[in-house]
Amino acid sequence: MSQTYDRGPVEDFGRWREFTAGMWAWIFHKFTGWVLIGYLFTHIAVLSTATTGAEAYNSTLGGLESLLIVRIGEVGLLAVAVFHILNGVRLLFVDLGVGLESQDKSFYASLVVTAVIVLASVPRFMEGVL
Amino acid sequence: MAERYSSFRSGSLSWLLQRVTAAFLVVVLAFHFFLLHFVHHPAEITLAGTSGRMSQWSYFATMVLFLVTATFHGVNGVYAALLNQGLTGTRKTAVKWVLIVAGTLLAAQGINVALVMNGLI
Fold first, then answer.
1. Mean pLDDT by 10 residues, chain B (121 residues)
2. pTM for the whole thing?
3. Which phi and psi angles does B49 have, rounded to 5°?
4. Is A58 among the domain residues?
5. Is A3 in CB contact (< 8 Å) with chain B?
6. What is the least distance, in Å, from the CA of A111 to any CA of chain B?
7. Looking at the predicted complex, does its ipTM rise above 0.90?
8. Nearest 5°: phi and psi at B2?
């Protein structure tokens, strides 16, 4: 089992140049987590239009999807979700003590794979607005 | 390097539940994104199509479990992050109850919406 580490003043972002890969992974995971839980509240609010009927639901979703800014936001959401998933898998392994010595490499791999998946998805996400 | 960075105290119940829900969410979140962005495009989604999917009990059950686990995972993660920033005392208790109430309301509203989509309400 891995050892709990006293991160010290990680919250002191003024020393960000000294951050290691593990610290960045922790910060990115926290940031993407905040975005995802915030989005979940928004998502349920939008889907709640289903309770007022098909017209409200269809026009709300169709209207949002016609906006370029929403599509760009969806690409951002994909990036956040994919990173959180990949880094989450990495954290599960780290917590099990697997691959602890190469956790910096697995963090960089999470970033690269996220970038590849997001870039490959952009055409699909922009269909109909570009 | 062998340091472990986490907002959770390793071995606690909240840590364990966060990991268990994470293992489920990894699969279901990826499935959700794939189904509703690649198999079906969001611009083509209608209530008729949504209701068709939600009327399949396996899909309905998966989505409700997805909502409940995602809500728990998110709220528990926010709480752990705030504790990690040094939240204590009355503020800690207040934040805990605000998160419990917000999470319960979110899950309740989500289940209500799912039941409407399923046709039960």
1. 65 91 97 97 97 98 98 97 91 97 98 97 89
2. 0.90
3. -65, -45
4. no
5. yes
6. 16
7. yes
8. -135, 20
Confirm whether A72 is domain-assigned.
yes
Query: Among partner residues B4, B26, B46, which is closest to A85 by beta-carbon distance?
Result: B26
Residue A59 lies in a domain: no
DSSP secondary structure string for all residues of B4-60: B--SSPTTSHHHHHHHHHHHHHHHHHHHHHHIIIIIS-GGG--HHHHHHHHTSHHHH
In A, minimum Cα distance to B27 occurs at A85
Q: Give the nearest chain B residue to A37 (CA atoms).
A: B74
Chain B: closest CA distance from residue A2 (Å): 7
| Pairwise CB contact (< 8 Å): B43 & A62 | yes
What residues make up the domain containing A111? 19-36+67-125
Q: Which long-range contacts (CB under 8 A, 24 or more apart) does B54-62 make?
A: B54/B114, B54/B117, B54/B118, B54/B119, B55/B118, B55/B119, B60/B114, B60/B118, B62/B28
In a domain, A6, yes or no: no
Amino acid at A15: R
Residues of A in contact with B32 (CB under 8 A): none
pLDDT digits over A68-118, tens only?
999 999 999 999 999 999 999 999 998 888 988 898 999 999 999 999 999
Judged by CB atoms within 8 Å, which residues 48-87 of A form the interface with B? Answer: 48, 50-51, 53-54, 57-58, 61-62, 65-66, 74, 78, 81, 85
Domains and CATH numbers, chain B: 13-118 (1.20.1300)
